[in-house]
């Protein structure tokens, strides 16, 4: 390709890439959150077979490279199951599952952070397991997990950049395209890096705000 | 000579030492008594340069501890034994003792280690040369702490409540070593709660009360009815100590 | 299609080469990260404000920008300023720098956890700052941060898979070749996923043992 300089249109491209990144980040985080919490609830009910299976899958997802997971879904699934998998579909499936595995770990420790004696007390009052989960555990677990959750989301934003490898036109992929066209790697990757950095800071700031708000509820505010 | 002249020390608004004067001559054993919060540990920490003075002067053999260049020399002439031992946890007793003589005094390692073994033998720890602090009892740790200080061949040994963290049995084994050092003529400045022991080994006793040096008397006079005991604060302190 | 692992048989040696390269890259990068982490940890505990600030910026930047962006920045950028190094070296440098940001946190908390009394003992015995640091602070901090540094290594193993995007034929890079040779991406990537998980699991066991071994004499028994 012929070398050419930056144009104002490139700003639009970057904005588009950032949009794809943030969009996929939000969607997969949400799906991951729902699945991960659901897995946590399954574990809370100690459902036989399902609990160890989930734990095993979560461990596998946590301890293998996301890139390999992505290749398995994008290249492996179509070949093996004779499916059509688009890059975006592969990205959504992989990132959601990966996020779910980490959410599951946070959910488990959040549930376990609630004191045994509280659960015993609630049970003594005749609350059902669901009622205990809903009214005793959930509010405290949410306050407990907001910190680790924010850290996870900042990390997962960065993980989304890997989907550029399978051809999703996210921010990193736009960076690669611009890099190839302009042959100005320092500027291109610095700008792309900065956009990721600012987005990460935004997530951290939102997380911190929710944390203070949730903490306020759980603090004793005097009589 | 170790000289403390009109020393003042405050932490924020709280005055801890208020114009303290004290002199320790070579060969003397001086005990500092006083209830907790009287400033006696702070005085030791001022002498070894861990705390900055707010006023006055401290000099060890004429080396002013407030001057960085002289502080290094002052520290070569004194050594501190701490209440909580403060041994280096990742080093064996031998390494704990040998580190400073080799690195600070630049003495040959073989010679230093030979002396360290002899020191450990003299405190009954020949078999603990290669043990780590975590595997020693509190009393054993403090004996190592004393050896570490002695290995620097200090002219003045500073002891900061060295038995406060120990149970009575371990206290006894540490005090026995200090008594022996006193008999051998080691110069010691000794902050302690052990009134009876201080009486046995000290030439002089100093009493600090709320940062003020109340009396500085030869041991016999301190315990005489007409001497230290004439001061109500001291009488009160001593009777309380006896009850404990 | 049947799940058939026998097709991998002829490629085991080939994949083994990739695994060896992954191991070499990770060990070199770990060494780089620990050295860098130590320097940055020192800087972050420095008395001088601008040194602390600089160290903080380094950690903040490299933790909040996706590794693939950092990697491309070095891979495409370095030749532009006349530095021509091979992809493997570039990968090791990028992994060391990214890992160093995390390692500095681990080492820094190891330094901050050291009992102040120990440092005072060193100070009054006249030990210089340099000797105190190299003989007392660092040995203790490195011992107590074995576990967090182990997490850095595990993350590094997973992250090193991204080097396959700059033509480094480590484990994932070799697997890509096998996948396209055999037309069996599902089997290849499924096995690869399990291999990574098993590898990190073994490493974490090794770290636990190392931690126990190095801290056997530090454990404080009742005095």
Question: Care to describe what's here?
Answer:
- The complex is a heterotrimer of chains A (223), B (244) and C (223).
- Chain A is mainly α and 223 residues long.
- Chain A has helices spanning 9-44, 50-62, 66-81, 87-113, 116-124, 129-159, 171-182, 185-218.
- In chain A, α3 packs across α4 (87-113).
- The mean pLDDT of chain A is 87.
- Chain B has 244 residues and is an alpha/beta fold.
- Chain B has one domain (2-243): Rossmann fold (3-Layer(aba) Sandwich).
- Chain B is 39% helix and 25% strand.
- Chain B has 9 helices and 10 strands.
- Chain B has helices at 40-47, 68-77, 93-103, 109-122, 138-150, 168-183, 195-201, 219-222, 232-243, and strands at 2-11, 14-24, 29-33, 55-60, 63-64, 78-81, 156-160, 188-191, 204-209, 212-218.
- Chain B is globular and about 55 Å long.
- With 223 residues, chain C is mainly alpha-helical.
- Helix content of chain C is 76%, strand content 0%.
- Chain C is globular and about 75 Å long.
- The mean pLDDT of chain C is 89.
- The chains are: A mainly alpha (223), B alpha/beta (244), C mainly alpha (223).
- The interface between B and C is medium-sized, with 30 and 24 residues.
């Amino acid at each position: 390709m012929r070398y050419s300089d930056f144009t104002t249109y490139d700003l639009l491209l970057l904005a588009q890439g950032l949009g794809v990144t943030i969009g996929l980040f939000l969607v997969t985080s949400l799906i991951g959150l729902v699945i991960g919490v659901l897995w946590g609830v399954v574990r809370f009910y100690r459902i036989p077979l399902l609990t160890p299976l989930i734990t095993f899958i979560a461990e596998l997802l946590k301890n293998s490279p996301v890139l390999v997971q992505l290749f398995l879904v994008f290249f492996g699934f179509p070949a093996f199951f004779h499916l059509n998998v688009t890059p975006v579909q592969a990205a959504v499936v992989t990132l959601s599952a990966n996020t779910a595995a980490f959410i599951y770990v946070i959910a488990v420790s959040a549930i376990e952070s609630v004191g045994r004696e509280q659960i015993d007390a609630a049970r003594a009052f005749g609350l059902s397991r669901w009622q205990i989960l809903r009214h005793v555990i959930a509010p405290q677990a949410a306050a407990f997990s907001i910190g680790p959750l924010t850290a996870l989301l900042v990390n997962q934003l960065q993980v989304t950049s890997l989907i550029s490898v399978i051809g999703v036109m996210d921010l990193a992929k736009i960076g690669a395209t611009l890099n190839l066209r302009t042959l100005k790697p320092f500027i291109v990757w610095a700008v792309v890096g900065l956009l990721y950095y600012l987005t990460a800071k935004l997530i951290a700031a939102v997380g911190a705000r929710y944390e203070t708000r949730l903490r306020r509820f759980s603090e004793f505010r005097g009589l | 000579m170790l000289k403390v002249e009109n020393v003042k020390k405050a932490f924020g608004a709280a005055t801890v030492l208020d114009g303290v004067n004290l002199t320790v001559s070579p060969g003397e054993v001086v005990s500092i008594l006083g209830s907790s919060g009287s400033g006696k540990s702070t005085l030791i920490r001022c002498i070894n340069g861990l705390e900055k003075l707010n006023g006055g002067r401290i000099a060890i053999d004429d080396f002013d501890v407030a001057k960085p260049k002289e502080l290094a020399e002052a520290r070569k002439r004194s050594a501190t034994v701490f209440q909580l031992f403060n041994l280096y946890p990742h080093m064996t007793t031998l390494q704990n003792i040998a580190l400073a003589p080799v690195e600070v005094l630049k003495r040959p390692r073989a010679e230093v280690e030979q002396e360290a073994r002899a020191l450990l033998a003299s405190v009954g720890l020949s078999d603990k040369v290669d043990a780590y602090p975590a595997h020693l009892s509190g009393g054993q740790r403090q004996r190592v702490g004393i050896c570490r200080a002695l290995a620097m061949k200090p002219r003045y040994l500073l002891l900061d409540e060295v038995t406060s963290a120990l149970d009575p049995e371990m206290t006894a084994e540490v005090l026995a070593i200090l008594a022996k050092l006193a008999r051998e003529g080691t110069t010691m400045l000794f902050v302690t709660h052990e009134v009876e022991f201080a009486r046995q080994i000290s030439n002089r006793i100093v009493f600090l009360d709320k940062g003020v040096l109340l009396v500085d008397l030869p041991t016999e006079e301190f315990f005489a009815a007409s001497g230290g005991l004439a001061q109500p604060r001291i009488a009160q302190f001593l009777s309380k100590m006896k009850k404990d | 299609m049947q799940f058939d692992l026998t097709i991998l048989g002829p490629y085991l040696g080939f994949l083994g080469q990739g695994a060896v390269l992954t191991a070499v890259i990770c060990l070199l990068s770990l060494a780089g990260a620990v050295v860098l982490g130590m320097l940055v940890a020192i800087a972050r505990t420095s008395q001088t404000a601008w040194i602390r600030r600089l160290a903080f910026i380094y950690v903040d930047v490299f933790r909040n920008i996706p590794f693939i962006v950092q990697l491309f920045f070095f891979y495409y950028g370095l030749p532009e300023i006349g530095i021509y190094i091979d992809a493997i070296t570039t990968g090791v440098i990028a992994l060391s720098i990214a890992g160093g940001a995390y390692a500095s946190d681990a080492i820094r908390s190891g330094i901050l956890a050291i009992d102040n009394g120990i440092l005072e003992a060193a100070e009054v015995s006249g030990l210089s700052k340099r000797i105190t640091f190299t003989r007392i602070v660092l040995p203790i901090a490195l011992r107590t941060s074995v576990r967090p540094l182990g997490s850095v290594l595990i993350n590094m193993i997973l992250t090193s898979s991204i080097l396959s995007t700059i033509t480094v034929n480590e484990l994932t890079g070799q697997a890509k070749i096998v996948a396209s040779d055999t037309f069996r991406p599902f089997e290849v990537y499924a096995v690869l996923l399990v291999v990574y998980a098993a590898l990190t699991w073994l490493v974490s066991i090794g770290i636990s043992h190392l931690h126990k071994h190095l801290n056997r004499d530090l454990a404080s028994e009742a005095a």
